[in-house]
């Protein structure tokens, strides 16, 4: 039976197999871990759904394949009387020959990497799809032109041709490109750097945040929050709970942020191009730093959780994020996110919105700063600078200010 | 270095191998005393004698069957089939016996033999003696197939074929027999499964075989001189094993692919090559790959009619020019 | 004939019968798939020639080749295993019933295309002649083969080149489903063609292993002496149909019984007893053979099916299948 690349998430078209847990020839029971697959956002373990012998691996560790592609074959036990009489013992015949690796003849160029060919992969289609042959405006594009457009960052939809003629490579090459295109590596002296491959998480971060940064018109609002109340309430909660899992400052502020969005429902929206999507419940993403990257798992219905519940949920998401065991669905959606760099001593920063959300709250470090009280006296208080980045297409200045002010109000109550 | 005709190169190649290895024997119709109907094996009988160079009756099945039996039991026979059209008379050995023996017997039986044959049109021999049939054997798993276009390649690829432990079908083109080419002195051994880039260029890749190679080269020259189109010309030389890497690399550079094939249109050798290019090099193509072939008709005998059929230099030039213009 | 040779002939025939009968039974149990062409009743021909062959002599036979393969000493287990598509088969399951080959035992192939192996046997004989080697190529085929082109090309070539090859026609009266007399211009399909190639017409009672043995010996001696090929017609009969699919209803009433009355093994057994060989010796041979066939059967039933790892091996000499780089 053929092993397929499983469905990896609604927007994910392909995954990379990171490791095979079984080798060709191994016996496999239903439920055994077969291989791990990684996408932009998450890594998942794929179990075998039937028993047999893993007879073929078609997509090796390190290789990518689209959803639905055959990645391997499990030779099942036949249901005929022949195999009923064939026991499980291994043949004592001479070592079976493996199909030998194809070696290119010596006199040809070796621009293409040699690969191990199997009888069922005699001709291998390109691994990457560079888009449709016909654009939505009806113009057709040659395959090479499509590839060039992707590599040179030329927006095909904007390419003009005479009488809607086919877009060929020369047309793409003549078109101005988005973003600078000289080779970056070429601007540095050889030998002074090491080029590391970009993994799928890094690639996703680059792509999504570039898109966010270049497409959403944003503005920033900064407000200082007097944190005595938050610090005090937190200490109380942790004293009361007595559990080893403590509530953090971030947990407190995320909880307040959820309450603020609940109180200002006009800001609990996202821009979808043709429409504005309004949400009744509050889903908040929380930025989690990982080794080599960053993900923002989404807390569902944060507006209805107690701080303790929220803390626990966030703890679980964080642990699983660090173990690359998040489900695809846990990374999707949300209206707003919270990012806290205070633990590093950062006083203030402007975060970039996670598309398609409409805002992101950046929290700085709690610092003791001087302030004048209502009686004109100078005192020191724990102050945190919060900066809200808003997508102006759907959150205007006053609305954003209102939302941020609500957070300040909720946080500062005693 | 010497200038040698293609036909003399055949005799030289066979002689080179027979001199080197006493197990190499040669059989065919009129090959020994008469030196072959195309005079491609003149001198071998005198040099190697009646035991090693044998005239056979008109018995194509016996010629191939005997070659197979001798190869299975230790000799390295070269068998001649006078015209490649005669494959039809002994096709059982090409399709069922020789290519499958090793596989069916799980590696016990070997067939280190070479079948040489005169292939192709241009000599006004009519429909049953002019066909280009490399594709008839290309499609059978278990064989190797080569078709040299120059005297030097004749010797080098024939030597490689004789030394190859697998059965090799060696297509000489009857209309190339009197062409001449430079051939170095001494032993010449080439490698099966290798194509040759005869002319480099960046605008289009033209892959051709045997008699079509000189035409492709001339067309490339005209395309450059008259239309400023710079073509890369590849002599495919070996259909099985097929040097896909050379072809794919070239298409990666030029983004346009043409084949020039003498076989009639349907299922010619270029159909498989274009299929591979369209698949693996899909995103290198800036235009559909085009096959320039003989039409799917039997070959006529009259000189002017036969000449119309095979891809001419003019037809190659016009096809490439038109494709690049539009 | 020495006593040893006679006993050997009996052993051979009995073994061929038991093995072939077992193949038939396994077939009915659906453990042998595809098709199978049985030579029940024709054992004396295979045994007689095999006993006269020397090590180094080469056998070329048709798809009705189980007996010829076994007669050269290939173990029963390997043959049954191949028929059953098991990994312990003679070709590990890649060839099947119609292509049994054991180069090690001189069985240079069983050939499924009628007549194909006659020129091939000529080639093997040519090699012997060329190198001055003394082995003989022995080529077995049926009466139907005498009408195909390759038969005529091979005989002609063998005669003009004086090749050390012996052509043995097992005339079992039926081409496939058609009586040979209906489709052949001459009465004796092989013997009456011999003269067309300048050969002696030789006909032998194919049910008499001793007669076959003697004819074989003299043909081999002729070949080894460099005096060229022989064409021998053996009159014999097959008890089963052409292949599994054939119930052989085309046979006239009583014909099968007539031939069973001249069963080669029964005949030979009687002859040995008449010559004074002890019953106990014969019974011992028989029970030994039966045990071996039973043991081989069980071993094959227990063996794994053909390994997927050999699917693409040995197309070419390097062990692989690569047609491209």
Task: Briefly characterize the structure.
Chain A contains eight helices and 18 strands.
What does this protein look like?
The complex is a heterotrimer of chains A (414), B (326) and C (325). Chain A is α+β, with helices and mostly antiparallel strands and 414 residues long. Chain A has three domains: 2-79, RNA polymerase II/Efflux pump adaptor protein, barrel-sandwich hybrid domain (OB fold (Dihydrolipoamide Acetyltransferase, E2P)); 126-191, no CATH class; 203-412, 2-Layer Sandwich (Chloramphenicol Acetyltransferase), CATH 3.30.559. Chain A is built from eight helices and 18 strands. Chain B is built from twelve helices and 14 strands. Chain B has two domains: 2-183, 3-Layer(aba) Sandwich (Rossmann fold); 196-325, Rossmann fold, CATH 3.40.50. By secondary structure, chain B is α/β, with parallel strands linked by helices. Chain B has a seven-stranded mixed sheet, sandwiched between helices. Chain C is an alpha/beta fold and 325 residues long. Chain C is built from twelve helices and six strands. In chain C, strands 2-1-3-4-6-5 form a six-stranded parallel sheet, with helices on both faces. Chains B and C meet through helix 3, helix 4 and helix 5 of B and strand 2, helix 5 and helix 6 of C.
List keywords for this structure.
heterotrimer, A: alpha+beta, four-stranded antiparallel beta sheet, B: alpha/beta, Rossmann fold, 2 domains, seven-stranded mixed beta sheet, five-stranded mixed beta sheet
The percent range for helix content of chain A is 10-25%
Radius of gyration of chain C: 19 Å
Outline the biggest β-sheet of chain A: 6 strands, mixed
Quantity of strands of chain C, as a count: 6
CATH class of chain C: Alpha Beta
3D shape of chain C: globular
Encode the helix/strand succession of chain C as letters.
HHEHHEHEHEHHEHEHHH
Main interface by residue count: B-C, 52 and 52 residues
Based on the coordinates given, report the CATH architecture of the largest domain in chain A. 2-Layer Sandwich
- Under CATH, the homologous superfamily of the largest domain in chain A reads Chloramphenicol acetyltransferase-like domain
- Uncertain ranges of chain C: none
Strand element count of chain A: 18
Instruction: Identify the strand order in the major beta sheet of chain C.
Output: 2-1-3-4-6-5
| Beginning-to-end CA distance, first to last residue of chain A | 64 Å
Strand order of the largest sheet of chain A: 9-18-17-16-12-15
Structural class of chain A: alpha+beta
CATH homologous superfamily annotation of chain C: Thiamin diphosphate (ThDP)-binding fold, Pyr/PP domains
Count of helix runs of chain C: 12
């Amino acid at each position: 039976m053929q092993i397929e690349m499983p469905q990896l998430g609604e927007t994910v078209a392909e995954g990379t197999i990171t490791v095979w847990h079984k080798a060709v020839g191994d016996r496999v029971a239903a439920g055994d871990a077969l291989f791990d697959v990684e996408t932009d956002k998450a890594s998942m373990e794929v179990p075998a759904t039937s028993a047999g012998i893993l007879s073929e691996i078609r997509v090796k560790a390190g290789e990518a394949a689209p959803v639905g592609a055959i990645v391997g074959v499990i030779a099942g036990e036949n249901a005929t009387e022949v195999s009923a009489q064939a026991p499980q013992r291994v043949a004592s015949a001479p070592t079976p020959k493996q199909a030998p690796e194809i070696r290119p003849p010596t006199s040809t160029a070796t621009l293409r990497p040699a690969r191990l060919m199997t009888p069922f992969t005699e001709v291998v289609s390109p691994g990457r799809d560079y888009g449709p042959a016909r654009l939505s405006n009806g113009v057709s594009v040659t395959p090479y032109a499509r590839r060039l457009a992707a590599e040179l960052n030329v927006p095909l939809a904007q390419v003009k041709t005479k009488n809607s003629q086919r877009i060929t490579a020369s047309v793409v090459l003549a078109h101005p490109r988005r973003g600078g295109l000289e080779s970056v590596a070429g601007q540095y002296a050889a030998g002074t750097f090491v080029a590391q491959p970009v993994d799928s998480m890094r690639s996703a971060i680059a792509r999504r945040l570039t898109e966010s940064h270049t497409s959403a018109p944003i503005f920033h609002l900064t407000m200082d929050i007097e944190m005595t109340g938050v610090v005090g309430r937190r200490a109380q909660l942790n004293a009361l709970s007595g559990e080893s899992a403590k509530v953090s400052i971030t947990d407190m502020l995320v909880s307040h942020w959820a309450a603020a969005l609940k109180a200002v429902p006009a800001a609990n929206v996202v821009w979808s191009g043709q429409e504005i999507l309004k949400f009744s419940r509050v889903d908040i993403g929380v930025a989690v730093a990982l080794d080599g990257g960053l993900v923002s798992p989404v807390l569902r219905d944060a507006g209805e959780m107690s701080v303790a519940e929220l803390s626990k949920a966030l703890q679980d998401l964080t642990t699983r994020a660090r173990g690359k065991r998040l489900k695809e669905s846990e990374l999707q959606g949300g209206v707003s996110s919270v990012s806290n760099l205070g633990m590093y001593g950062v006083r203030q920063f402007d975060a970039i919105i996670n598309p398609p959300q409409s805002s992101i709250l950046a929290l700085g470090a709690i610092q003791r700063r001087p302030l004048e009280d209502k009686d004109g006296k100078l005192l020191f208080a724990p102050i945190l600078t919060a900066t809200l980045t808003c997508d102006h297409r759907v959150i205007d200045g006053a609305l954003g200010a209102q939302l941020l002010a609500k957070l300040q109000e909720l946080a500062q109550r005693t | 270095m010497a200038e040698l005709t293609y036909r003399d190169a055949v005799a030289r190649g066979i002689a080179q191998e027979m001199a080197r290895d006493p197990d190499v024997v040669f059989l065919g119709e009129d090959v020994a005393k008469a030196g072959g109907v195309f005079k491609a094996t003149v001198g071998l009988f005198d040099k190697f004698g009646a035991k090693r160079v044998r005239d056979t009756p008109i018995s194509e099945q016996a010629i191939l069957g005997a070659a197979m039996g001798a190869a299975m039991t230790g000799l390295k026979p070269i068998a001649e089939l006078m015209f490649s059209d005669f494959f039809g008379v002994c096709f059982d050995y090409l399709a069922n016996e020789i290519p499958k023996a090793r596989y069916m017997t799980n590696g016990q039986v070997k067939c280190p033999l070479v079948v040489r044959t005169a292939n192709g049109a241009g000599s006004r021999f009519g429909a049953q003696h002019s066909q280009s049939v490399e594709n008839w054997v290309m499609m059978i798993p278990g064989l190797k197939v080569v078709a040299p276009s120059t005297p030097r390649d004749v010797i080098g690829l024939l030597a490689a074929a004789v030394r190859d432990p697998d059965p090799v079908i060696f297509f000489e083109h009857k209309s190339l027999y009197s062409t001449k080419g430079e051939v170095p002195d001494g032993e010449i051994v080439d490698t099966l499964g290798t194509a040759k880039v005869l002319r480099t260029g960046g605008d289009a890749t033209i892959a051709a075989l045997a008699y079509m190679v000189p035409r492709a080269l001339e067309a490339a020259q005209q395309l450059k001189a008259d239309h400023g189109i710079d073509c890369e010309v590849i002599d495919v030389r070996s259909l099985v094993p097929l040097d896909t890497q050379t072809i794919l690399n070239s298409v990666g550079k030029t983004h346009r692919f043409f084949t020039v094939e003498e076989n009639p249109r349907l299922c010619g050798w270029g159909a498989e090559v274009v299929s591979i290019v369209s698949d693996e090099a899909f995103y290198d193509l800036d235009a559909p790959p085009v096959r320039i072939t003989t039409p799917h008709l039997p070959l006529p005998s009259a000189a002017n009619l036969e000449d119309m059929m095979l891809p001419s230099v003019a037809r190659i030039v016009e096809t490439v020019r038109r494709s690049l213009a539009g | 004939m020495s006593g040893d040779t006679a006993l050997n002939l009996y052993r051979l025939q009995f073994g061929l019968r038991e093995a072939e009968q077992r193949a038939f039974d396994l077939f009915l149990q659906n453990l042998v798939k595809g098709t199978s062409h049985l030579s029940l009743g024709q054992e004396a021909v295979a045994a007689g020639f095999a006993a006269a062959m020397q090590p180094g002599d080469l056998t070329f036979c048709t798809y009705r080749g189980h007996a010829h393969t076994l007669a050269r000493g290939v173990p029963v287990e390997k043959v049954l295993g191949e028929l059953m598509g098991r990994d312990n088969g003679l070709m590990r399951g890649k060839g099947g019933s119609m292509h049994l080959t054991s180069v090690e035992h001189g069985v240079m192939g069983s050939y499924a295309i009628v007549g194909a192996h006659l020129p091939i046997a000529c080639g093997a004989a040519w090699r012997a002649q060329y190198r001055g080697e003394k082995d003989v190529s022995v080529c077995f085929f049926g009466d139907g083969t005498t009408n195909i082109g390759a038969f005529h090309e091979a005989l002609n070539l063998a005669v003009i080149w004086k090749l050390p090859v012996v052509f043995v026609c097992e005339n079992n009266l039926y081409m496939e489903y058609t009586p040979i007399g209906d489709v052949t211009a001459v009465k004796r399909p092989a013997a009456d063609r011999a003269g067309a190639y300048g050969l002696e017409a030789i006909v032998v009672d194919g049910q008499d292993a001793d007669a076959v043995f003697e004819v074989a010996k003299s043909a081999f001696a002729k070949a080894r002496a460099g005096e060229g090929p022989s064409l021998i017609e053996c009159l014999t009969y097959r008890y089963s149909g052409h292949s599994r699919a054939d119930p052989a209803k085309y046979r006239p009433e009583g014909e099968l019984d007539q031939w069973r009355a001249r069963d080669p093994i029964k005949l030979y057994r009687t002859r040995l007893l008449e010559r004074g060989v002890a019953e106990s010796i014969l019974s011992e041979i028989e029970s030994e053979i039966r045990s071996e066939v039973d043991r081989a059967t069980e071993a094959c039933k227990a063996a794994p099916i053909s390994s997927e790892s050999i699917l693409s091996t040995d197309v070419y000499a390097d062990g692989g299948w690569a047609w491209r780089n």
